[in-house]
Amino acid sequence: MTDTWVIRVYGIVQGVGFRPFVSRLARRFRLCGSVCNKGSYVEIQVQGDGSTCQAFCQALPKEAPPRSSILKIDVNREAQPPYEDFQIIESIKEAGETFVSPDIAICDACKQELFDPANRRYLHPFINCTACGPRLTILDGMPYDRERTSMGKFPMCPACYEEYTHAETRRYDAQPVCCNDCGPEVYLLGRPERRHEAIKETRRVIAAGGLAAIKGIGGFHFCCDAANEDAVGRLRALKHRPVKPFAVMARDLAVVRRECVTTEAEEAVLDGHQKPIILLEKRPEGRISPVVAPDNPFLGVMLPYTPLHLLLFSYPDGQDFPDALVMTSANPSGAPLCRTDEDILALTDMCDCILSHNRDIRLRADDSVMMFYEDEPYMIRRSRGYAPLPYLLEGMEGHVLGIGGELKNTFCLGKDSLFYLSPHIGDMADIRTQEALRESLVRLEELLETTPQLVACDLHPRYETTQLAGTLGLPLLSVQHHYAHFVACLAENNMPGPAIGLICDGTGYGTDGTIWGGEVLIGDYHGFQRFTSLVPYDQYGGDAAAREGWRIAAALIHACAPEAAGSIVETLGLCTAQEFATQRFMYEHRLNCVRSTSTGRLYDAVSAILGFCRASTFEGEAAMRLEFAARRWQKQKKTAGEDTLPHGSGPYIRTDALIREIVKKRLAHADPDYLAWFFHDRLAGLCVAACVAARAQSHIETVALSGGVFQNRLFLALCEKKLQHAGFSVLRHHLVPANDGGLALGQAVRAAVYLQEQE
């Protein structure tokens, strides 16, 4: 028997060329042994002198493939029979921690081969290698081997099989490997064109101003020339999306630089292996139609991440083709992303051709969306390229599910110390999205080999997610919405607390039965207390008030000055006399009224008062327009914000006084852009003053910022800088969305802690 170092590597080490890398590294160090994929980890056994084995262990994380992600390495020493050389052993399935790789954008080496006429994969729409290609979206089971993917039905040709089985090649053990002689093919749905003819015809349709549906890695996109105003307008009409921005796919970085202002950090992620959509500042001289993102200083841009996208832009057929395309999710309004030919067939009246393929998508994955804050990624929608990378929280035990929220739904599976956030699912108002949630949940549970012991859901009793959680046959834990936001921020920063939570959000059901959304909490993973909130106000009109900020504005003005409210509302042009008469009747009789502390709805009201957005056509529109106005003022006047903090009075954050002041200034004809900035700055100051008061009571020096309003980078910066000026340590989100897309992580962590508390 020989002294053997047994090394277990946990993380994203499947489907990224990890075993061939280990084999090459071992041979460089002249070590004998083996490497094997165990499903939940990669096990390496090496035999040699102690110093060499130690050096090998140190080199593993430093030199690992760029697409891998190592969470931990365990090393033990055992007596094993001697090895004569170093071997790559076939996968062996074991239960335990499971790591599923996200989909990976096409690598540079495959790009070169794609357009090399001498290469046998020339113009092949599905070219990939161990460093790139689909992963999660084609996966049936673990470990990640071809027979457990949707590529299992495609036999490899002899040449591909040779590459697949030889460790010295770039395609060793690359499960989606294929070429022009084997594997999937593209076709036009309902038409005879297949393979290259299908691509050429799709290019012709788009170049002529038509609309196409295109199947990607995680679902279908609707696509058109981003510079063609008529085509973009037609797409808007068909999608019933009058002003909500569309995302754009640019041919290359040169096009992005022409259209947008970029930094090195943004370009590195744009052109990295995840290739998310990034919100970038528009250049006024750009060629993309202004109707792509009307009245918006930012443009959501991504680069091609599949070989098929690259072929759309650069197929050598002599056609003139646009260098920027609108790429937006192909789905009926409110429904999930189309995944199959059957799904997209229902939308044939929305496009002129459908470019599909026969590689099945097992799990939907929308494009991830992010912006940059302080030169770092700040996630808005976490999906393709990032999900389901887990978060490691040492010391947790048990299997749990966080079912997520009603909007921007994701779910989170906690498996002991690992917490897996799902790709973006969508909004639960549509029954098809509810079914997509059920389907995705079952699939990810199977992939991760977990059966939750407990499901955490929102406190709201009428949420569809709450109803779904109740049908799973599991013990149920209700977690207050904003506390879940708070815990999600703590968990992402690996800080269990205690901390002060400044949660600025839209709406969430409070423990007192009212609607919360502007909260200062004190707590940790175990629980919280509500220290203070915005001054509660009456929100009349039910769901209509969430869309029509003028209703909330009118109610706030009526509460401040009931006798003069009618004339003020008329002067500000908030609504007609008849509309206000209806509202006044509701005020007098307390009809269709809830108490609210929502920061998001306060933004809607101020946006209406200042004349930016009376009613929203999409979620967040009013708040976005208010932020853009404040940015205009800040940019023109170079106003950075005040370091002095306003003093609060009483138990609440006095936003009622702030609204009175803004109305007064507006009636005195103050510049609306200035008032937009004034609102941001003063609200941030009031919130920070409340945190100072919470510190005086709790002696806690850390503040966690979460909730959808913190997607507003101006408000985030004002709060963070004022908090730091006041001596606080500040936690904020990074790759977990501050909005409801991160809610499930907080739910799942709270559920895991609850299980431990019951022991």
TrEMBL record:
EC annotation from Swiss-Prot or TrEMBL: 6.2.-.-
Keyword Transferase: no
Residue intervals of the YrdC-like domain: 196-385
Chain ranges of the Acylphosphatase-like domain: 4-90
Annotated catalysed reactions: C-terminal L-cysteinyl-[HypE protein] + carbamoyl phosphate + ATP + H2O = C-terminal S-carboxamide-L-cysteinyl-[HypE protein] + AMP + phosphate + diphosphate + H(+); an acyl phosphate + H2O = a carboxylate + phosphate + H(+)
Pfam families: Acylphosphatase (PF00708), HypF_C (PF17788), HypF_C_2 (PF22521), Sua5_yciO_yrdC (PF01300), zf-HYPF (PF07503)
Gene3D superfamilies xrefs: 3.30.110.120, 3.30.420.360, 3.30.420.40, 3.90.870.50
Top EC class for this record: ligase
Family listed: Belongs to the acylphosphatase family. Belongs to the carbamoyltransferase HypF family.
Name listed for the protein in its UniProt record: Carbamoyltransferase
